[in-house]
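Let us work through a complete example step by step.
Step 1: write down the sequence.
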Amino acid sequence: MDRHPLDRHPLASLFTSTGARSRRASSWDRSGGNMDFLFVGPGETVVLLDHEGPGCITHVYCALVLPDPVDYRDAILRCWWDGESTPSVEVPLGDFFTIAHARVRPIRTALTSVNAGFAASHALNAYFPMPFAAGARVTLEHRGERPLGGGLPAFWYHIDYETYDQPPPQDALRFHAQWRQERPTVPVGPRPNRQLHGGINLDGAENYLALDATGAGQMVGLLLEINNVAGGWYGEGDDMVFVDGETWPPAIHGTGTEEIFGSGACPTTEFAAPYHGFHLLESPDWSGLVGAYRWFVHDPIRFTRSLRWTVEHGHANNFANEYASLAYWYQTEPHAPFPALPDRAALLPPLPPAYEEARTALFAAASAAMTSRSDAEVLRVVAIGEPFYAGRFEETLERLRRA
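Step 2: predict the structure and record it as tokens.
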């Protein structure tokens, strides 16, 4: 029978009956009141979703109102599919939503967004489909020393999902997300931290490793975070992607770090596009903190046995910098063991001396404003603190002094 033209409509899923049922797990107040958030204390783990049966997560949302920036690293998101013994997702909360180095940048991408509320609050959204056959469990562990949420310890969240009468098709892969870091990378050769030099890399053995997966599937995204402590242009490093156990040369070989993320040469201006961006550039001379993302939506990196995604840290790996990454991919189970997450201290983002002073002063001012019960005063104070979440701590202190 010929297919109807509507079968090819790009929005067919919006008007086609599927038999799926929509559900949501959220922090709504079970008493019927308006305390629609969770309190997550130091060392506490809360269950965000625990569903038995087949389904698919379609949207994850969360928000904090007056957080400590380190909350975005102290909170650890984990997801298990189908009763597996180790999680398929184990990542810092903020980085999962593409917040690099705990410095907030409002962005709107094809798969994630960080949306503004008032100046001290941001909404985090992710739209990766996450299918499961027998069940799903999602938790949040807080490893911080204070309750999650900083000046107002409260965590709002939604997990939207569908349920089905039948398990997903056999070829439906499971979603994975994994954190890695190397602090610092080890420079190769006699002339470290040089942009242009005569070094040679013909094996990729010393590259930074963002993903080492075993199974069949496809990589769909990458968040790369660099603390360029060496200074100068760090981005002569090529991406080298080794598919299905190959050695040299890799199936995918790039020409520089900026090309991975769709930028022109040596970017100095932040940008965020649907599928790629350099959304954090702390300094126009390339020093300090860098954050970049790439969604492989139109060009997923496919593998049938294994995948190693690597990138040089400087040409021929001659830069000594701090690298971290979050890889997103789908694959068959079981997945390879994840590297252990660093302990809390090793996972904290770089924080200058002014951070603690700015944090203490801002939270004290916000507490006084909330005690006044004046909405106008609260909004005035948190607006003063807007640069705090972008990582401009000295500016925050100057604003508070002038207030």
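Step 3: interpret the result. The first strand starts at residue 21 and ends at 26.
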